[in-house]
Amino acid sequence: MSRYTCAISQFANLTAFDILYKTAPQVVMIDRVVTPFWYIIGFLGNPISARIWLSRKVCKSNSSAVYFGSLAIVETVYLVLHVIYELQNAWGINTFHTPVRCEIFNFLLITPQYMVPMLVLGFTTERYIAVCHPFVMEKYCTVKRAVIVICCMGCASVALGLIQVYVWSYSDMFGCVFREGAEIFQQAWTWFTEMLLFLILPVACLLLNLLVIREIKRLSIESAAHGQGTNPASTITLLCVSFYFIFTLLPATIVYAMQQSITQGDSSLPLEQWASDPVWSSYFTYLTVRKIVEEICLSNYAAYFIIYYATGVYFRRSFRQLLCIPIRPKSRAVPADFSMSLTKGKHKCAETVVLNDNESPSDT
């Protein structure tokens, strides 16, 4: 009997979940313990975030709020799909390993993952324009333009995601797997999308953030020299979200890129011997590290509510109103973000004064 036949025979009555649970149970346990924690935060926080950011009072004059609200909706959709994915891969319940459902589900699962980096780049670019090029902000940073850009991002995400219908197929023996004969295309396409959306876009966000921080520092020095103060609350919120996205996504991209260099062991060995085999042991160590990084990355779809609440004055106030918590009004003049430019060789300061910071949607 050949080694291939031996491998097939011992896997005949086992699913991918069964094999993983027998050989690397720690990977399954990480999924079962950590993932529900993010579900609780995400399913509670994302709808609240969407309601606050997309309320008429906020989004009618704040284009960044449109991005934030859309981000919360996309993240909620992804978490719903991720529950289906987890039932299959962490609990062994067959949810999408059937013909047709396999292809459709993988298309649906990847589409919101494609859209999130685009949305983060969208509001990061807006903040760069608002801080570094304030006199063209009214032209480019409008609610109408934000809606158009988000719709284009959605169409692009769907178009990219449709490729998964071709890449995946259902096998009676192995379940939902890559389509036979499409392996080379799948590898090339995956590398292209991973590098574009999960490496190049985050790096672009990082560079824009650094330019924004440099400009804020310059403006702070100049405003201090003029005896003026700044209150860049909305900028802080946007920077925190953008940086959190970058520093949780990039490790996942690096770990994913490493998988091609990680060798699997001899599949003809009995499953009981896999744990003691040096090659398989190294592979399971990689899977464990990768799962931990993936769980950290999953927080991208759940933890932004915490950032909004920690950094946004208006968001905290709106959230407390939803919970019917009384708020004492504070009527005081607060200088908001301002910008400086050269007009006939002299600095010109454009400053907005908010009379009540508790009532200002722009002070997120």
The topology string of helices and strands comes to HHHHHHHHHEEHHHHHHEE
Radius of gyration: 24 Å
Shape: elongated
Which assembly state applies to the chains in this document?
single chain
Spans with pLDDT under 50 lasting ≥5 residues?
1-6, 331-359
Q: What is the overall pLDDT average? A: 84
| Largest sheet, strands/sense/barrel | 2 strands, antiparallel
Sheet/helix structural class: mainly alpha
Mind telling me which CATH architecture this is? Up-down Bundle
Relevant CATH superfamily? Rhodopsin 7-helix transmembrane proteins
The CATH topology name reads Rhopdopsin 7-helix transmembrane proteins
What CATH first level would be assigned? Mainly Alpha
Number of domains: 1
Proportion of strand residues: 5-15%
* N-C termini distance: 68 Å
Specify the helix fraction band.
Answer: 55-70%
